[in-house]
């Protein structure tokens, strides 16, 4: 090889060496920039995920508060509706006794006894009207279809004039308080 060819080869090598650091410098500058951009994108995704989770948690918390409020309102409503339940059960005995008094076979022709019966009958009517104003209703009527939710069957007997599962005799009236059974009616049912 000639000297001139050697010089050209050296110049070419030196030129390549000079170009390589520039490329490496550009790559070095590009890599941190790309890393920074990738990191920013990653952080933005994490921020979006965190925002979604926070929004979801907020919606769940609001729903839970609404559910608690609704349950509390229902509990208060039930407390108002059924606060009289114990009192109602106790007053039913008085109603039963007044009905029994009116059902006794006595000489209703006598003025003294007739006045007594009329007084008991008026007292019973007033008591029934009063309890009806507070949502207490009697259940169990002869001829009505037997309903195990409202009636308690004491016995089943074949009875003429009645269809199967029809109430033939009411032994004790049942009562509802705001459509809730406080005492089922004791009945006899046709078989």
From TrEMBL:
<feature type="coiled-coil region">
    <location>
        <begin position="33"/>
        <end position="78"/>
    </location>
</feature>
<comment type="subunit">
    <text>Homodimer.</text>
</comment>
<feature type="region of interest" description="Disordered">
    <location>
        <begin position="1"/>
        <end position="29"/>
    </location>
</feature>
<keyword id="KW-0143">Chaperone</keyword>
<dbReference type="Pfam" id="PF01025">
    <property type="entry name" value="GrpE"/>
</dbReference>
<protein>
    <recommendedName>
        <fullName>Protein GrpE</fullName>
    </recommendedName>
</protein>
<feature type="compositionally biased region" description="Basic and acidic residues">
    <location>
        <begin position="1"/>
        <end position="10"/>
    </location>
</feature>
<dbReference type="InterPro" id="IPR000740">
    <property type="entry name" value="GrpE"/>
</dbReference>
<dbReference type="InterPro" id="IPR009012">
    <property type="entry name" value="GrpE_head"/>
</dbReference>
<keyword id="KW-0175">Coiled coil</keyword>
<feature type="compositionally biased region" description="Acidic residues">
    <location>
        <begin position="14"/>
        <end position="29"/>
    </location>
</feature>
<keyword id="KW-0963">Cytoplasm</keyword>
<comment type="function">
    <text>Participates actively in the response to hyperosmotic and heat shock by preventing the aggregation of stress-denatured proteins, in association with DnaK and GrpE. It is the nucleotide exchange factor for DnaK and may function as a thermosensor. Unfolded proteins bind initially to DnaJ; upon interaction with the DnaJ-bound protein, DnaK hydrolyzes its bound ATP, resulting in the formation of a stable complex. GrpE releases ADP from DnaK; ATP binding to DnaK triggers the release of the substrate protein, thus completing the reaction cycle.</text>
</comment>
<dbReference type="InterPro" id="IPR013805">
    <property type="entry name" value="GrpE_CC"/>
</dbReference>
<comment type="similarity">
    <text>Belongs to the GrpE family.</text>
</comment>
<keyword id="KW-0346">Stress response</keyword>
């Amino acid at each position: 090889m000639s000297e001139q060819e050697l010089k050209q080869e050296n110049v070419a090598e030196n030129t390549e060496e000079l170009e390589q650091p520039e490329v490496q410098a550009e790559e070095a500058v590009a890599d941190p920039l790309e890393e920074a951009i990738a990191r920013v994108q990653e952080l933005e995704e994490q921020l979006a995920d965190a925002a979604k989770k926070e929004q979801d948690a907020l919606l769940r918390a609001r729903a839970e508060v609404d559910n608690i409020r609704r349950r509390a309102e229902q509990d208060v409503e039930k407390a108002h509706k059924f606060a009289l339940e114990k009192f109602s059960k106790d007053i039913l005995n008085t109603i039963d006794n007044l009905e029994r008094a009116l059902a006794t076979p006595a000489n209703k022709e006598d003025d003294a006894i007739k006045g007594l019966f009329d007084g008991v009958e008026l007292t019973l009517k007033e008591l029934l009207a009063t309890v009806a104003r507070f949502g207490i209703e009697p259940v169990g009527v002869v001829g009505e279809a037997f309903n195990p939710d409202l009636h308690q069957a004491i016995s089943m007997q074949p009875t003429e004039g009645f269809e199967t599962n029809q109430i033939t005799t009411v032994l004790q009236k049942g009562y509802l308080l705001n459509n809730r059974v406080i005492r089922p009616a004791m009945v006899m049912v046709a078989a």
